[in-house]
Amino acid sequence: MIEGDWGGAPRLDILAGVEMLAENRGVDSGKFILFGGSYGGYMSLLLSGRHPEKFKACVDICGDQLIYAYRNMSSPLEKSNGFLDRQSGSRP
Question: Which residue from 2, 48, 50, 78 has the least number of CB within 10 angstroms?
Answer without folding.
Answer: 50
